[in-house]
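ok, trying the design again with the full structure, not the truncated one.
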């Protein structure tokens, strides 16, 4: 399992997941469990929905001039 969720994406996922959980508990609905999806994907830094599209929000390391050969 290759990491494909970057730092900013990770923070946004966790914050949104907590907000969804909070709203679900406030309104007393089972829909709050959907908030677990972004929280888990943010924690493990892997999003299976990115795989079919080949997406990754991780920063790619820049190669030094001598490594570009």
């Amino acid at each position: 399992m290759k990491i494909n969720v970057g730092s900013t994406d990770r923070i946004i996922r966790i914050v949104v997941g907590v907000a969804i959980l909070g709203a679900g508990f406030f309104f007393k609905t089972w829909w709050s469990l959907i908030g677990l999806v972004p929280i888990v994907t943010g924690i493990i830094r892997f999003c299976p929905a990115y795989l079919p599209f080949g997406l990754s929000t991780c920063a790619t390391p820049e190669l030094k001039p001598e490594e570009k050969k």
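Keeping the full-length input from now on. The two ends are 29 Å apart (CA to CA).
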